[in-house]
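Supplementary Text 2. Reproducibility record for the structural model of the 290-residue chain.

All settings were left at their defaults, and a single model was retained for analysis rather than an ensemble. We include the record here because the model underlies the residue-level annotations in Supplementary Table 4.
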Amino acid sequence: MREITNYTAAIPALGVGIGYRSELREGIFSNRDRIDFLEIITENYLSHPDAYRSLEELCDHFPVIPHGVDLSIGSMMQLETPYLKAIKRISDVTKAPYYSEHLCMTKTPGRYIGHLAPLWFSEELLQHVIRRVQMLQDYLEKPLILENVTYMLEIPSSPMSQTEFFQRLVEATDCGILLDVTNVFINAANHAFDARQFVAHMPLSHLVQVHLAGGYQRGGWYVDGHSELVPPNIFSLFEYLVSLCQVKSVIFEHDAHFPPITDLLQQMDQARAIVRRQQRNDMPNECVSS
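Retained model, structure tokens:
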């Protein structure tokens, strides 16, 4: 494989932050000195004027990264112009250095799926997603950062692995990677593959951001609930990632069963300490992908 030109290396490190949720608002604003940046769900701010004003207030106090959930970049249907204009407006207001989304589908012609569905990793779909990423990066005037998702059903007989799909997508578009470490751990547990091997085979030279969250087990399956604190085994996988490459930015996601803000801050401090400890070991500036 030819060497990947790495324009995402210029994206600044933001530190360790948290996904903004209204339930956490008081704790977030009371601890601004311990939270480096926020991530917001783009779709929460697209229509209502009060929500838009709330976003402007967040931007007055924190660096803010917009994180989309409904782009459906893997769908074959045409992207809707009003939606693109709306997410660009949010992207511009935040002045974020990048825009993040999921490598998945959320809709098909005439049907909304209702969750982040996995893709069939084929050559045809890869070329389709490459064209979309190139168009979106030109339209948004900033890099697009794509996240790996969890899945209950792995689409069989994919012509290529997910890591190869990410590698080739990055090589063709110079987009970035949002590596959800929790999603890797959950998929590995549910589908019996090596989580560390998956991490090592991702295009880590283009790693821009990391997600950490806690889930739960139900009926023998791990579920990405964003409802619990991050457990030690996921922190261990995160520490392995940090041993492989420079980790610039980390977001903790929590969407239900909200704990005291002190517990979340403690976990953020733990992640920050892991990153700083590795930085003291004089890691090179760029990651090495397998």
